[in-house]
Fold each of these.
Amino acid sequence: MSLDSQLDLLISSVQASSKYRTLSPDVVRTIGAQELKKRRQLKEAIKATKNKLHQIAGAYQTGKIEYAGWLQALQQTGDDPGALQTVCREIMAHHASTRERLVILDEFYHTLFAGLPPITSILDLACGLNPLAIPWMPLPAGVTYAACDIYQDQVDFLQQCFVVFGVEGAAQPCDLLQACPTQAADVVLLLKTIPCLEQVDKTIGRKLLDTLNAPILCVSFPAQSLGGRHKGMTVNYEQHFRELVADKPWQIERFDFATELVFRVLK
Ligand SMILES: C[S@@+](CC[C@H](N)C(=O)[O-])C[C@H]1O[C@@H](n2cnc3c(N)ncnc32)[C@H](O)[C@@H]1O
């Protein structure tokens, strides 16, 4: 069987599993092709592809994902900002990355966006459920918010969330491994994503930092592993990040939050 036919079979087999059904076929193709090259045995390549997809995406989703119910709960908060924040927090707890951020949420965006020129557009890459943090972001009216990740049902849900928040937003599936977005924005959020994508492509961090079309990048790294706090993790991530930007004339500020290390890059 040709490699192309094997890849088609691999993609349909992975997508037949309910866990991966709503994943962008592009990302399944990228990882499947890589695993097929390494293994050739279709069955093993399917297993390895699922494992990798779990590592880079599935492992972050926790508890029951109920987009329709979540949307309804958001809509029912009406004009009550406190109730809206409560529901957003509950939803964000279903993605490990935003769940870790809940304890620093009150200070996170106020700190990161302080002292910047007025923000008119944000690009949130590999966003997970982070757009649910919009109610904590000090943003002027009229801001546009573009977000992307690899799950079609997740981005459909986020698109509806923008309506609830009254924000002009666009959420769509993307595969950052295939193409670096070149869309212009005032601020790009690349939160806790470089280590995740580097599990598939070691050069992705550098490519993204080089290509992203924004004067300000907020690039972050987790201060804990999925299993809990990990001593020395931030030291290693900082060293890695500094290597990625070593030859750049960019101005870099460092923010050490309890659960996340952020670098604000002024390109
Ligand atoms: C560590 S989480 C970070 C989520 C979010 N940025 C945050 O900090 O709350 C990594 C995210 O990358 C997404 N992802 C994995 N592979 C991707 C790819 N090839 N293209 C775009 N997003 C991807 C996952 O679905 C997951 O939501």
Amino acid sequence: MVVGGGIAGLAVARALLAGGWDVQVRERAAAAPSTGASLGMWPHAVAALEQLGLRDLVRAGTVAASSGELLRPDGRRLVHLEPPGPARLVARPQLLAALAEGLPPGVLRWGAPALSAAELPAADVLVAADGVGSVVRRDVFGPASAPRPLGTVAVRGTADVPPAGMSETWGAGRMFGTTARLDGRTNVYACFRSALAAPAEAADPQELLRRVFAGWHAGVVETVEHLQPDSLDVRPLLDLRPLRSTVRGTTVLVGDAAHAMAPNLGRGACESLVDAVVLARHLVAAPDVATALRGYDRERRRPAARLVRASRLLNRVSTAEHLTGLRDGALALTGRVLAGRR
Ligand SMILES: Cc1cc2nc3c(=O)[nH]c(=O)nc-3n(C[C@H](O)[C@H](O)[C@H](O)COP(=O)(O)OP(=O)(O)OC[C@H]3O[C@@H](n4cnc5c(N)ncnc54)[C@H](O)[C@@H]3O)c2cc1C
């Protein structure tokens, strides 16, 4: 029984079905999303997609992550950015559609929210893939496993301008980033300290971005003007304190339910795919469920916890309000040293 038909839940279903398990996925949404921003897929996530049988998606449904620049608000360069190996970018709706494609009828139930862990039908394994606000985690792991606010807000969306390569601009308390989309437009993400925006401003995210990034270099200001209003998503960011275990009895956490992290390293969805592959490998190979879940926890929990900590740090540094001159000086120096080595 898998609760949540997002990236983690669908990937788990695919991997377990391929291993001969009977799977049911309960998803609270009535249907798959038709719009959504791009996700960076690091090389290990691309490998996981291939193991999940999605080689066609990688070949034809993604775009290569290019090199780019980390800039100051006036447009001067701080550091040249290189993608981590052969990384790809994929739009979330395309990724979800590919993961759901080919699932036998009846496996994925739309419009089926789990209201509590107790009301779920009995199963050999209960996989909590219901995201950062997981109901299953709350019920099975208790209130101490609740997510914590990062004190920042993220806005993402699509701009009708041709992509100019990967770029991030860091200022005081705020950052603005762009990557390419397969459809020839630009994927936009921005993050800023929560105190910079009143909650009511979330109703008009484009106007909010105009105000927060006023006076920044033309690449930012013009991209904000070309944002598609109906593509914009605003959300306060949360992450999870690393847990002592991702397993309790026959319940196991995967994806954001296990290790929600700040988006700054672009690793949450990547790790969800890896969770799925690893969990299925253990469940298929181990002599019993308890051994399999122990093996999964041993393999996945610590690496994911390290990423939660690193992402939290990067979220703070990229939206630092004070000592930004020192931060930028250190970044520029690091960039020069790295360029010298290259
Ligand atoms: C601004 C931003 C940018 C990001 N960029 C990247 C990136 O570039 N690369 C990357 O790897 N990651 C990125 N991420 C992280 C990524 O979006 C998440 O890590 C990923 O979506 C986690 O997938 P998931 O399936 O675990 O959780 P979710 O995507 O949250 O899916 C959970 C699913 O469970 C369903 N659900 C919830 N509760 C219930 C319930 N009670 N009953 C039934 N169904 C339920 C939800 O409807 C949803 O479909 C980014 C995140 C943000 C916020």
